[in-house]
């Protein structure tokens, strides 16, 4: 199914003025030496699973459209890894290690789901979780509705609002006898807000607020943490995310409009109100 149609299908049963909360992305990291470079290229722009190379590391991003109705997030990651394995993205040696370890632990996984995360931790690091709250049909924040380009704590680029903590780190390198600057690392903005409806071609207004635990915000992420349904993962990480929100943007800037103030999404209420 086309990725945009699948995304639209996720909102079919949500009533007017409703909301949806998801883990939009889980990012895993592994050594670059374990992939076959010519076989990974088709996954650079895949909308379900994307693979990016940063120096000696590979980032595998598992998006919410991959197995969207599977509750356990660690199991979704495990399935994504074996999909890549079956498509010869990994070297034969690394694939063999995955298969042998899976066979060793498979019986334990049947009776104890914590082994999903344990298996992944043997081969990968978790480097990002991206939380998404979708507000349907009615704009949630006044600075979007009034097209204010400069809300406090945010900057606007094209049609997306970004918290101002995002930045790129550069380093000086020599290439072909020339001194050049290249990107050493990227700290993504902790919060961004944009019109998801336009992105997926939906007739509904869908305002998405993303919270991205990555870079300096990724501490306390673990496979044990994600080895559960999205709501329970959020329960575990909530105290940390609340502190990060207060530090980066504060609570006051993201005050809801009247409709949403009377009917706030549960996760928003716990982050910004309680």
Mind explaining what this structure looks like?
This protein is an alpha+beta fold and 274 residues long. It has one domain (3-273). Helices cover 36% and strands 29% of the residues. The chain has helices at 3-9, 37-40, 73-86, 92-111, 114-121, 142-145, 196-200, 223-226, 230-248, 258-262, 266-273, and strands at 19-31, 49-54, 57-63, 125-136, 154-157, 160-163, 167-175, 178-187, 191-195, 206-214. The chain has an eight-stranded antiparallel sheet with strand order 2-3-1-4-10-9-6-5. The protein has a two-stranded antiparallel sheet with strand order 7-8. A hairpin with a 2-residue loop joins strand 5 and strand 6 (160-163). Helix 3 packs across helix 5 (114-121), helix 4 packs antiparallel against helix 5 and helix 9 runs parallel beside helix 11. The longest helix has 20 residues, at 92-111. The two termini are 40 Å apart.
Secondary structure: elements and pairs:
Blueprint (H helix, E strand, L loop, with lengths): L2 H7 L9 E13 L5 H4 L8 E6 L2 E7 L9 H14 L5 H20 L2 H8 L3 E12 L5 H4 L8 E4 L2 E4 L3 E9 L2 E10 L3 E5 H5 L5 E9 L8 H4 L3 H19 L9 H5 L3 H8 L1
Antiparallel strand pairs: 1-3, 1-4, 2-3, 4-10, 5-6, 6-9, 7-8, 9-10
Overall number of strands:
10
Helix content range: 25-40%
Shape verdict = globular
Our count of helices gives 11
Radius of gyration: 20 Å
Q: What structural keywords apply?
A:
274 residues; alpha+beta; eight-stranded antiparallel β-sheet; two-stranded antiparallel sheet; 36% helix
Brief summary:
36% of the residues lie in helices and 29% in strands. It is of the alpha+beta class and 274 residues long.
């Amino acid at each position: 199914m086309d990725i945009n149609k699948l995304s639209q299908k996720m909102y079919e049963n949500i009533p007017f003025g409703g909301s949806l909360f998801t883990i939009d992305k889980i990012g895993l990291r592994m050594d670059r030496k374990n992939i076959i470079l010519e076989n990974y290229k088709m996954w650079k722009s895949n909308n379900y699973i994307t693979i990016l190379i940063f120096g000696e590391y590979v980032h595998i991003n598992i998006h919410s459209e991959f197995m969207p109705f599977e509750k356990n997030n660690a199991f979704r990651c495990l399935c994504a890894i074996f999909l890549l394995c079956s498509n010869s993205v990994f070297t034969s040696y690394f694939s063999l290690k995955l298969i042998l370890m899976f066979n060793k632990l498979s019986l334990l996984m049947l009776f104890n789901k914590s082994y999903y995360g344990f298996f992944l931790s043997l081969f990968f690091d978790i480097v990002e979780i991206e939380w998404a709250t979708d507000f349907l049909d009615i704009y949630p924040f006044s600075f979007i509705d009034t097209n204010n380009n400069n809300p406090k704590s945010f900057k606007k680029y094209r049609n997306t609002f970004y918290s101002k903590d995002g930045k790129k780190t550069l380093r000086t390198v020599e290439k072909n006898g020339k001194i050049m600057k290249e990107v050493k690392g990227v700290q993504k903005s902790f919060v961004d807000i944009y019109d998801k409806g336009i992105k997926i071609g939906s007739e509904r207004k869908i305002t998405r607020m993303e919270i991205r635990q990555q870079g300096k915000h990724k501490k306390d992420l673990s496979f044990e943490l994600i080895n559960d349904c999205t709501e329970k993962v959020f329960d575990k990480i909530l105290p940390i995310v609340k502190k990060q929100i207060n530090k980066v943007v504060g609570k006051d800037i993201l005050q809801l409009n009247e409709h949403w103030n009377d009917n706030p999404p549960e996760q928003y209420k716990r982050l910004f109100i309680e």
